[in-house]
Amino acid sequence: MKRTIQSAVILIFTLILATGLSVAQVAESKMTYTVSMDQPVNHYYHVTFRYDGVSSGSVDLKMPAWTPGYYMILDLAKNVVDFTATDESGKPLAFEKTAKNTWHINTEGVESLNISYYVFANQTSVAESYLSEQRGFISPTGIFMYVDGKLNHPVTVRINPFTEWTQISTGLDRVEGSKNTFTAPDFDRLYDCPVLTGNQEVVKFEYKGIPHDIAIETPGTCNRDTLASDLKRIVEAATGIIGEIPYKHYTFIIMERGGGGLEHLNSMAVFADVSKYQGSEHDRNMLGFFAHEFFHLYNVKSIRPIVLGPFNYDKECITNMLWLSEGGTSYFEELILNRAGFLNREKFLAHATRTIGCHENIVGHEFQSVALASRDTWMLFFNRNENSEGVTINYYEKGSTLCLLLDLRIRYESKNENSLIDVMRTLYQLYSKSLNRGFTDEEFREVCEKAAGCSLADFFEYVYTTKSIDYAKYFGYAGLNIDLTPLESVTHLNKTIYKRSFLISPVKTPSVLQKQLLDGWLK
Ligand SMILES: [Zn+2]
Question: pTM surpassing 0.85?
Fold first, then answer.
């Protein structure tokens, strides 16, 4: 919030300097979107955009090429149909496509601009929009164009749902007294707030006085009270890790069964079947998924690599650090479940065993570092083929494991004074809140080394190279054994890997320090 307000102030100040406009004139500039969906069966949203206070001879309207959190170029402009631009009297204004996602409009000196277009929306995805008689899911990056150079401009959004629908669920701030009008302080915030319209059931709970909505598309026989109380325990454990709650309201958007979820600052959009949720052991398997998307509100939305916000919506934002942003979130997902009482120590370690095995028992780990997997995700993650398993790795798996090892190492080196949690708190307070930016690879390493009180050069080789990981040393810090006995081998190209069980078990007589470390780490 602080970042966006500051940016908006700087932008307005710059605008005043650049154009000589008075404050009153700048304040009149207003952007309003209206989204209608009269015939959902046709899968078309009708979008109109009113821009008052136009002060330039031309305007470039741009549609983002991707959706933050979903690291793939989607070319969302491909779904735009029947684009028109008119002045206040309805007179058409000339425009041309100057790039695949840019509409260049000759404004001819008008002060108000009316834009109209349709968006075809028939993708079942958390990163793309969908419209049918079942629901309307608005993934904002593919619906709302921004005026080039004015990403920091406030925007008002009016949603006109299909006549048979009664609910609108979103993380956007609702205009007081209005059912369907919302505001965002800038387009980054708008793009971070998906909208679900339909007849979803909304279950509510509060945590520390903050309202949380659970919007469920197919509630079925779900035990609403149990689901709400389980999610509340997740919220309590996750927010307790960082120690601060940065949102004023939070919305869980839960669509029909399926897979996939996307994180946002004060909402999540997921496909998950909660229609039979009773809080059983089996049901609780999906709580890790919710914990993961929820913790992202810190790790990636606030605590983030430097290129991941503010974003360049035109092209790939390449970083080495998705091992921390995604793998780290998977690690904290397990810690949250442990702290919330959903995953005991034995099961936590069994999950760690499984994750290590998934990474180590494929030959790809001999060919691709986790930093490279992060950089190449834009072309490789969603485009897997017969070559993928042999030469690539999953940065969720290696990243989660590295964060676990880093946590143990910091606890060991600092004699249980600090942990990876202290690192995350420092990153949140220093980079996200004080400096309003992300951090570089070097800055992240500095914070870790400060917490450990020593150089971690040998650890960071595991990030940037394919060097073999010394699991026995790291688990030994917590008085744990890991079984590294080779079971069988496979060869690919010029590399041989030995498959192992990686079973983790406690040593018989741990030292006082080992016991302290393990007890401080896991419940
Ligand atoms: Zn994630």
Answer: yes
> From CA 59, how far away is CA 57, in angstroms rounded?
7
**Cα 262 from Cα 65, distance rounded (Å):** 17
**Distance between CA atoms of 333 and 324, rounded to whole angstroms?**
13
| CA distance linking residue 359 with residue 450, whole number of Å | 29
Structure tokens given for 207: 């945590």
Chain center to CA of 442: 23
Q: What angle do CA 26, 31, 35 make, to 5 degrees?
A: 175
In the predicted model, residues of the chain with pLDDT beneath 70 are 1-27
Ligand 1 centroid–CA 185 distance in Å is: 25
Ligand 1 center from residue 295 Cα (angstroms): 9
- pLDDT recorded at residue 501: 98
pLDDT value at residue 382: 83
Q: From CA 276, how far away is CA 282, in angstroms rounded?
A: 11
Cβ–Cβ under 8 Å, residues 348 and 380: no
State the number of CA atoms in the 13 A half-sphere of 215 facing the CB.
25
Residue 383, pLDDT score = 83
Instruction: State the pLDDT at residue 390.
Output: 87
Output the CA 401–ligand 1 centroid distance in Å: 15
Q: How far apart are CA 215 and CA 200, in angstroms?
A: 6
CA of 293 to the centre of ligand 1 (A): 6
268: closest CA among 245, 290, 236? 290
Structure confidence at residue 128 (pLDDT): 98
Burial of residue 296, with CB atoms counted within 10 A of its CB: 0-12 exposed, 13-18 middle, 19 or more buried? buried
- Amino acid (one-letter) located at 187: F
Instruction: Decide if 69 contacts 128 (C-beta within 8 A).
Output: no
Determine contact, residues 237/336, Cβ cutoff 8 Å: yes
Angle between helices 395-413 and 345-360 (to 10 degrees): 120
Residues 6+ apart with CB under 8 A from 293: 261, 262, 263, 268, 270
Q: How far is the CA of 518 from the centre of ligand 1 (A)?
A: 26
Please report which helix (H) or strand (E) contains residue 458, including its range: helix 457-464
**Beta bridge partners of residue 116, listed in sequence order:** 48, 84
What's the CA-to-centroid distance between 517 and ligand 1, angstroms? 28
The Å distance, Cα 263 to ligand 1 centre, comes to 7
Report the C-alpha gap between 74 and 66 in whole angstroms.
5
What's the token pair of residue 208?
């520390």
Q: What is the DSSP string of 271-284?
A: E---TT----TTGG
Local structure of 125: helix, strand or coil: coil
pLDDT at 195: 98
- Interval between CA 326 and ligand 1 midpoint (Å): 5
Dist CA 216 CA 253 (whole Å): 7
- The DSSP H or E segment spanning 160 is strand 155-160
Under 8 Å between Cβ of 357 and 487: no
Residue 420: its pLDDT value, please?
98
- Residue 318, C-beta contacts closer than 8 angstroms, at least 6 positions apart: 307, 375, 378
